[in-house]
Amino acid sequence: xxxxxxNSKGQKSLLLVALLVSHMLLTKEGVxxxxxxxxxxxxxxxxxxxxxxxAVKLSHxxxxxxxxxxxxxxxxxxxGRGFIAxxxxxxxxxxxxxxxxxxxxxxxxxxxxxxLILGVLRSWNDPLIHLASEVQRIKEAPETILWKAVExxxxxxxLLEGMxxxxxxxHSGVVENDIYTPWDGLPSLQLADEDSRLFAFYNLLHxxxxxxxxxxxxxxxxxxxxxxxxxx
Amino acid sequence: xxxxxxLFTLALIxxxxxxxxxxxxxxxPQISKCRSPEMETFSCFWTAGNFYNLTVxxxxxxxxxxxxEEDWKECxxxxxxxxxxxxxxxxxxxxxxxxxxxxASKKEVYDKKCFSVDEIVLPDxxxxxxxxxxxxxxxxxxxxxxxxxxxxxxADVRKGWITLEYELQYKEVNETKWNELxxxxxxxxxxxxxxxxxxxxxxxxxxxxxSEKFGEFSEILYVSFSQIGIGCDHxxxxxEFPWFLVVVFxxxxxxxxxxxxMLSKQPRLKMLIFPPVPVPKxxxxxxxLLKKGKLDxxxxxxxxxxxxxxxxYCDDLWVEFIELDIEDPEEKNRASDTDRLLSxxxxxxxxxxxxxxxxxxxxxxxxxxxxxxxxxxxxxxxATSDSDQFKKAxxxxxxxxxLERQDNDESLPDLASTDxxxxxxxxESENSSVWAPFEDSVESPxxxxxxxxxxxxxxxxxxxxxxxxxxxxxxRVVLSPGQKSKLGRAQREGCTEQNFTMDNTYFxxxxxxxxxxxxxxxxxxxxxQEQGYNEDGYFTTESLTTTVANLGAPTAAAPSSEMPxxxxxxxxxxxxxxxxxxxxxxxxxxxxxxxxxxxxxxxDQLNKIMP
Lengths: 232, 611
Description:
- The complex is a heterodimer.
- Chain A contains nine helices and no strands.
- Chain A has helices at residues 8-26, 30-33, 48-78, 83-86, 102-107, 110-134, 143-170, 186-189, 194-226.
- The longest helix of chain A has 33 residues, at 194-226.
- Chain A starts with 7 loop residues before the first helix and ends in a 6-residue tail after the last helix.
- Chain B is α+β, with helices and mostly antiparallel strands.
- Chain B has 21 helices and 19 strands.
- Chain B has helices at residues 2-23, 51-54, 243-263, 267-273, 287-292, 295-311, 329-332, 337-343, 346-349, 361-364, 373-380, 387-405, 412-422, 429-443, 447-459, 484-491, 493-496, 509-531, 541-548, 591-594, 603-609; strands spanning 30-35, 42-47, 61-66, 73-74, 85-88, 98-104, 109-116, 127-136, 142-150, 164-172, 179-180, 188-195, 199-208, 221-224, 468-471, 477-479, 539-540, 571-576, 579-582.
- A four-stranded antiparallel sheet of chain B has the order 4-3-6-7, with no helix packed on it. Chain B has a four-stranded antiparallel sheet with strand order 11-10-13-14, with no helix packed on it. Chain B has a three-stranded antiparallel sheet with strand order 1-2-5, with no helix packed on it.
- In chain B, a hairpin with a 6-residue loop joins β10 and β11.
- In chain B, α6 packs across α11, α8 crosses α12 and α8 packs across α13.
- The radius of gyration of chain B is 56 Å and the shape is elongated.
- In chain B, 38% of the residues are buried.
- Chain B: Belongs to the type I cytokine receptor family. Type 1 subfamily.
- Chain B: Residues 410-434 are annotated as: Disordered.
- Chain B: One of its GO terms (molecular function) is cytokine receptor activity.
- Chain B: The chain crosses the membrane at residues 241-263.
């Protein structure tokens, strides 16, 4: 106890660490001074084209998985229950005003569109987590549905990160983070009545398919507009 | 009756069906499909059904409603998409908004559908199909082409609003089944290995990338190589794989390889591919004998081996079945073959000595047709030489033994009767214990004889075989009298403990050594001297050496006390019908090497030892 136990080498390393930390804290742009490179990238600076390529691939994959999981769920649980007839399809992201046709998509500013995409992705973060956990409680849920739910949730997170990077690159000014819709559908996924519960799942998956298609489309439009100058 | 009833009811049912079918000819109007070709507009199509004919025309309406609206609106355009259709242009289309359409008249709703536009996208077919030649094969029979096309004009692919993938199908003109390529995103596709002599048809269809359903097919593109002057008119049929040629050449090649291997002088290669078939090998038997079919000689050798084996100290399992008596060492020394030879003619009539011994291995070697080869055979076991000579030799031996017999006349007849029963009691220490209890019972009545036998042994040779030391010009065989000197040995205690049998043709060197060690010093000299006795034209290598060296001293060939008794040797050379050169067995024997063969020294082993 009396012995401090630090030799000269240990003191030097401690000092070095302290200097580094203080430097990081003092310079607010800690992130930019020490750029965090995505895994597997050769250079820390990916081009915008590459970022968009990756984002489009991810969004396509998410939409593909969403379509499949919806079709499987429809086949397995929705037949004979008349869900389609009942479907009102009020998704929780309906409050976000997104372009509904090509004209609107052409006219909206790319920064706004990017923000919208981010908002939709963030709004789906929470529901996807609960989907992945609650779908396991469905009686005899097929393995394919289970792993797809988990996969969608993971990929969504990755796409969100990618989009935030793109936004950071494209945006000149301050990034707005207020586009967001909370989700309150968790209780409906945990209803005791099996029919109601399955209908809640059906709705959620239907909304997921639609929104993933939206995001995929918007990203492609943006990519063609920004990277290829409307000449994909 | 039952069958008729059944048929009748069936007929009724059929009639009912037909009647009801006729009722259903009036079909309800239905919405057949709603489709959007480019995700900007959409159209819905319906079938009017029979009602249309019966009632007032154009009473059908298509109403639509967006999900967030309350009222049903009527279709804005009944014309653009054709009859029984409703066209919604871009201003009426919201892509991700759920729609519901219903087909209704004023009275009732016939059909209703709900969907969203992104779900009903079915693109138009691609346009502007064309092909170009990539290359042709050297023979000119096959060619590769590249097919290109443009996306449907309605789909706005440039701005990325819709992403399409394409599926190409092709076939020969007179075929029925289409070949499909995998769906691809690019607007070009290569086709490989088309036959230039044939014409092809190509068609393409497209779909939205994440959908499952394809749109309509494009117009068919005709590919004809002759149009660009490449067609191969004289190439009638495609070259099929020449199976016949392959088989023929394969067989020929294989045959050539096999023959070459067989004829090749490379032993290794031959061994690898044609491993030698193991031939039966019995020690001491020349396989040539077997081949040449010298049955007599083979039989004698085999018989020798069989009987011989019974006498070995080896651990042969079948030897267990031989009657053995090792418990009483004196019994081993009881009767030698010479005694039996001398004693009677009865024995001679037996092909083997004492065929009464049922369990002995010797019985198996009994060959009634070769009566007299037994004894001789034992001497010839190690050699592939003339058995005939030895036959003569043993005959002579017998004659000679007669001389000895006179000395033992008293006891020999007794021995003769008992001998057959004991003759096979060759001492093998390992196996004797099995038979000891049995033999004990047999032995008891012969105890008196045993003493006589042992006495006899003390007087006569206790070996089955005696070494031929000399052959007189008269044709008589002089046995090595050194065997007699063994008698003293037999009585000596040091040797009686052992499984040492005087009856044996050959001694196991290990055992011999022990006895010789005791006695050799005394006996070497006289034996050597006697072996040096030389009359007729045969020499032992031993005798030669003894004559050369000092007679008085132990020969070089018999240097140590461990030298085995040279009662016999294997034949080295057959010089003449009357001459033999024997190998010297009196050699310094290294301990380890000779325990294996249990008894005799082969020329191979000799070669190892001889410097």
